[in-house]
Design a protein that fits this description.
single chain, alpha/beta, Immunoglobulin-like, TIM Barrel, 2 domains, eight-stranded parallel beta sheet, 20 strands, 25% strand, globular, binds magnesium ion
Length: 445
């Protein structure tokens, strides 16, 4: 049998209470095993196991097994096929991550309800062996800062290639996007209690109101309903003291420019005096010309906004589903406090898209990631999560001071659905995190 090595870091010291450890006596040729805890919310945690092929030849499959104390259960897993028998859990590779070249690694993750840690761990039948428990204390939630995000930062502006607050300090906002408001399964984004809960428990600083425009039932066919949803979210954001992005969630907005001009002109007159509001006139243009199609649209909408609101930030969508920020950088829109949209989904987009972002920044653009997911570009229909690449993106955004809102606040089976079935509309979602949510939340804090 080819051997595997499981690399584990027990990052949360509290989870070792009672002396539970994964370390087992292991023949020299067998696997080492531990697992990492990437998020701990007291009555549960997110575990991650990295499987490494420690041999000099490829392997084509792997299987990790462990037991949990009966007080704890795996509520969800990803990037592995999970089977459960009582308190015994088996995780086998899925189709895309079974083959590992010599020395290569892959990871799978799981959510545990309860604080018990795995025991009796094996990899392909051999005992997992692990390193010593970590000596580094776990990252903890930062102490609460006085005041709401808007009380702390006030009116925002673009400063160079980043965003600054009223005192001139660089600020990186982090938060979440709503689902297409016309397709929400429940009015999560419109709930004030939920917004406060996310602010206080996730450290959410900004919410994006993704107002669908083109589909049946969205803005073009039911403008009063869609506008009312957005205004509810704006008013809630003002009450909760968080920032709010008003997103014209369209793919062919240039076909409805007059409606967009009227919409943003109206809202800018009524809400443009508030420091909370950020305008986003075009979610994701398709592969159409920046200079001939998208830029003229932006210029028209920015003019309408600036007629009533001279200063709030406007975030501008870019070609190819808001990826070609380098193209926009070659011919920026005229105006002040303008930023540009970059969207990524980490199973699809990696270093080459970050290179476009770097090029845009070098050319002087300020970027805002108004959507991202640790998933395929379709939002994760296959349920797969790509956390290591997502971590590279998180690190890149932090290094460049790029604010972000993660896709998307709703119940569903996609990787990017943040909530699991039964999540109340009023918040309190500690036991309802789904898909990439634990990763999103851990990085918001
Ligand atoms: Mg203003």
């Amino acid at each position: 049998m080819r051997t595997l090595r499981l690399v584990t870091t027990l990052a949360v010291a509290g989870l070792l209470a009672g002396g539970v450890a994964l370390v087992a006596a292991t023949p020299a040729s067998a696997a080492t095993a531990v697992f990492s805890v990437t998020n701990n919310w007291g009555n549960g945690y997110q575990g991650q196991v990295t499987v490494t092929n420690d041999t000099s030849a490829p392997i084509t499959s792997w299987r990790v097994e462990f037991d949990l104390p009966s007080s704890s259960t795996v509520s969800q897993s990803w990037n592995a096929q999970q089977t459960t028998s009582g308190s015994h859990y088996t995780f086998a590779n899925v189709s895309w991550n079974g083959t590992l070249a010599a020395g290569a690694s892959t990871s799978f993750g799981f959510l545990v309800n309860g604080t018990g840690t795995p025991i009796n761990c094996t990899v392909n039948g051999a005992s997992c062996a692990g390193g010593p428990p970590p000596t580094t204390p776990p990252p903890t939630t930062p102490p609460p800062t006085t005041g709401t995000p808007v009380e702390r930062h006030g009116q925002l502006r673009v400063c160079g290639t980043t965003m600054c607050d009223r005192s001139g300090a660089r600020v990186q906002l982090r938060g979440i996007s709503s689902m297409w408001l016309n397709w929400e399964t429940a009015p999560y984004a419109e709930n004030l209690s939920a917004l406060r809960w996310m602010r206080d428990n996730w450290n959410l600083q900004v919410i994006r109101a993704a107002m669908g425009v083109e589909p049946a039932g969205a803005y073009l066919s039911d403008p009063n309903k869609a506008r009312a949803q957005v205004e509810t979210i704006i008013n809630n954001a003002v009450t909760a003291g968080v920032y709010v992005i008003v997103d014209w969630h369209a793919h062919e907005a240039q076909n409805n420019q007059s409606q967009a001009v009227a919409f943003f002109g109206d809202l800018a007159r009524r809400y443009g005096h508030l420091p909370n509001v950020i305008w986003e006139p075009y979610n994701e243009p398709l592969q159409v010309s920046w200079t001939n199609v998208i830029k003229p649209y932006h210029q028209a909408v920015v003019s309408a906004i600036r007629a009533a609101d001279p200063d709030n930030i406007v975030v501008l969508g870019t070609p190819t589903w808001s990826q070609d920020v380098d193209v926009a950088a070659a011919s920026p829109v005229t105006g002040t406090n303008l930023m540009y949209t970059l969207h990524f989904y980490s199973c699809t987009h990696g270093a080459s898209l970050r290179a476009k972002g770097d090029a845009a920044i070098r050319a002087g653009l300020a970027l805002f990631v108004t959507e991202w997911g640790a998933s395929n570009a379709d939002g994760g229909l296959d349920g797969r999560a790509c956390l290591p690449e997502a971590q590279s993106w998180i690190d890149w955004m932090k290094a460049n001071g790029i604010s972000w809102t993660a896709w998307k606040l709703d119940v569903g089976t996609d990787t990017t659905n943040l909530l699991s079935p039964g999540a109340p509309v009023t918040g309190g979602w500690t036991n309802y995190l789904h898909g990439h949510a634990p990763f999103v939340v851990a990085n918001m804090r």
